[in-house]
Amino acid sequence: MLILGIETSCDDTSAAVVEDGLHIRSNVISSQIKEHSAFGGIVPEIAARKHVESIGVIIEKALDEAGVSYQDLDAIGVTARHGLLRSIVVGAAAAKSLAYSLDIPLVGIHHIEGHIYSNCLEHGDKLAFPHICLTVSGGHTLLLLVRAINHYELIGRTLDDAAGEVFDKISKYLGLGFPGGPVIDRLAAEGRSDAFDFPRPMLNTDNNDFSFSGLKTAVIRAIEKAQRGGHDVSTPDVAASFQAAAVDVLVTKTVRAARAHGLSTISVCGGVAANKGLRKAFEAQSQTEGLSVFYPRLSLCTDNGAMIAGLAYHKLQDGMQSDLRLDAHANAPLGALKVLYK
Ligand code: KG4
Ligand code: ZN
What we know:
The protein is α/β, with parallel strands linked by helices. It has two domains: 2-115 and 300-317, ATPase, nucleotide binding domain (Nucleotidyltransferase, domain 5), CATH 3.30.420; 127-296, 2-Layer Sandwich (Nucleotidyltransferase, domain 5), CATH 3.30.420. 44% of the residues lie in helices and 19% in strands. It contains eleven helices and ten strands. It is globular, with a radius of gyration of 20 Å. Bound molecules: 5'-O-[(R)-(carboxyoxy)(hydroxy)phosphoryl]adenosine and zinc ion (ZN). The site of zinc ion has 5 residues, from helix 4.
């Protein structure tokens, strides 16, 4: 079964063709970073306009690279929940028009469920269920108990900023541009992680929740203090110390949640899953704790159409299908998805 997946929930315009939920025939991602970087973050109006300009071209490119035509498609999957409303609407409108004109099923997908699925897409049967999934992106930091594809239980979340958002804000404060994650990750490798003793918020609380805004404030205060004292601030040292604190909390709490549930498998997804420090820390834990930690390849960590197409296959297998009344929602909790389906 060939499914076209469309993802436009934030600043990437992406379309992909995935066969039987597993084989990626194409995954075209058009980044808008250049358009937004001057503003130090994503400008929703620009994002929506760029999606409108490129969605048709990106879909055709995805079909071309997959070596298929519109008539070969069996269904369309599209992100319809969670993200920038006007951006989601662009992808949803394209998906609905195609599903109607081709007379094939349409499946609305929750963006976060797409991220969770990215590890199933990458690793197939090797990824055991149940497992604990850490979803870390620019908009989310969630811990989930994943019992099976389509069966998730939210067990923890950030109470304030998402981890990726803090990477982006600190990068902006340091004048390092947008997005902040990749540049801080790169600089962290050149700095000393013990140069600043940044807090590890909620590290030892008796729950699976996170908090990152205090860490962000602590980093900004430390830089201000050093500057007031006339000291040069080493950007790599700040990056390394901040990243170490964020990674410490993410890894420690995820491993603790796995242990508490008697599980030895962890999956990590979302843009921050690309972070080298995070991967290294999980690697170290997996050796000492006997855990298996799974990540998708980098192009499946950040937003992409393949994860949407892949999950749409399983939704269809489970009898879930949207109709042409499919609407877009900027904020929707996981589990509110049922409203999408007939
Ligand atoms: O999943 P994603 O593409 O979009 C959202 O759904 O938010 O994630 C984007 C986020 C941004 O905050 C970006 O700074 C972060 O992922 N990110 C990283 C890295 N690469 C991307 N954060 C830390 N280290 C990285 N290497
Ligand atoms: Zn995302």
